[in-house]
Structures are given as C-alpha cells and as structure tokens.
Specification:
The structure is a single chain. The protein is an alpha+beta fold and about 210 residues long. It is built from 3 helices and 11 strands; from the N terminus they run E-E-H-E-E-H-E-E-E-E-E-H-E-E. The model has no long low-confidence stretch (mean pLDDT about 95). The chain has 2 domains: about 5-90, Pseudouridine synthase (2-Layer Sandwich); about 95-190, Pseudouridine synthase, CATH 3.30.2350. Strands 1, 2, 3, 4, 5, 6, 7, 8, 9, 10 and 11 form an 11-stranded mixed beta sheet that branches.
C-alpha cells in the first residue's frame, strides 16, 4: 500500500507532515518499511539526492493522526529534542471521548510505567521507573453522550493522553487498547505543534484543520 505524504511545511531545517491514522511513526522490530519515517526518507532522497536523510525528533502512536516533524540534520534534531524535553514546545490535540468527564476542564497527572514489552500502566510516584505525565484538557462540546476535548500535553510520554482519559472512565472513542467505544478510527488528532521558540518565525506554528472539535 502506498501513501502520499501530506507536507505541511518544509525548509532547510525541518519537514513537517500530517500523519494519517494507522501508520507507525518509526521503524519497529515487526515493521521496517511501512512507516512515516520511511516514506519521508524516500521523499527526501528522491528530491534532494540519495545522500540526504531525515532524523526522528518525536513520534505519534500508530492510530493517532496529526502534525509530526522530522529534522534534516543532526544538529537540528538535537536542538529540537532539547526543546521538546524542556517543555518549550506547545502540543495540542483534539479528541472525542466515549463519555463526558465530571469536570469540563482540568489537569490529569498520572505516573506511567512502561514494561519491557512496551506496555503502559498507571503506577504511582513511589515507582522509581514511572514517569510523570501531565495532560490539560477542556471540553468544548457535548453531543450524544460524547465529549469533544481540546487537549494540551505538558509532557510527552507514551500513550499518556489515551491512558489518562481511560483512567477517569472517559476513554477516547475508537481506542481498542484502553477500552474506548467502537469507532472507525482512534478519535485522536495532533492538530497543532508550536515550535516558534526554536526559531522566532510564524512558519514554525504548525497547524492543520481540526477533524473533531
């Protein structure tokens, strides 16, 4: 199966694309070729020459869609990853929740433990292997018992949005892994990535049209 990459923005430092739901961000032991990283690498090599490449900065879950950025050189990769780790990147998502939270806005703080198989579990701060995950949200609409949420993550832990909402009994619609009601896809989309603190340019506010909210 071939997928044409949807380029949001490109310059000499980065390439940002709109990742479709259902494709891995990067290579795993089980999947080497059908990944967004592979597709973007193919594009870069075909356009600029076989010696060119891209570098992974961050990732989205397979079934999450939305904005993802790759670096075009190692120094940019290092600088962007430092920016992500420092919390100076604004990352916004939209989601449809299977149920309506008791609080229409709030902050979800959870401690997440990832086992050797990559499975994510809720733990507590006494677990020295657990990582703190902070997720802010606001419910912008309620319809037919579903809640439409605008989300900003303050940390970037694996599955943090999905497991945090599942933990308050409001899993994301279509989330088979964390008990969401059935839907044709995972209703989670990364619609905004603000990198303007990396380069003070409006072009580094990377946004796509909302799909859910």
């Amino acid at each position: 199966m071939r997928i044409k990459i949807n380029i949001i923005y490109e310059d000499k430092f980065i390439i940002a694309v709109n990742k479709p739901s259902g494709i891995l961000s990067i290579t795993t032991e089980k999947e080497k070729d059908f990944t967004l990283y592979h597709l973007v690498t193919e594009y870069i090599k075909s356009r600029y020459g076989k010696n060119n490449r891209v570098f992974i900065v961050h990732r989205l879950d397979r079934d999450t869609s939305g904005v993802i950025v790759f670096a075009k050189d190692y120094n940019t990769k290092e600088n962007l990853q430092s920016l992500f780790e420092s919390g100076n990147v604004i990352r916004k998502y939209e989601a449809i929740l299977s149920r309506v939270p008791q609080k229409r806005s709030g902050r979800l703080i959870r401690f997440l433990h990832i086992d050797k198989l990559g499975n994510v579990f809720i733990s507590d701060e006494k677990d020295r292997f657990a990582k703190k995950a902070i997720t802010d949200y606001k419910i912008v609409n309620v319809r037919n018992g579903r809640a439409f949420a605008d989300i900003q993550i303050m940390t970037g832990k694996k599955n943090q949005i999905r497991i945090s909402f599942s933990d308050i009994d409001c899993p994301i619609l279509g989330d088979k892994k964390f008990n969401g009601d059935k839907y044709f896809r995972l209703a989670l989309n990364a619609y905004c990535l603000d990198l303007r603190s990396f380069l003070d340019r409006d072009e580094y506010l990377l946004k796509i049209p909302n799909s859910f909210i």
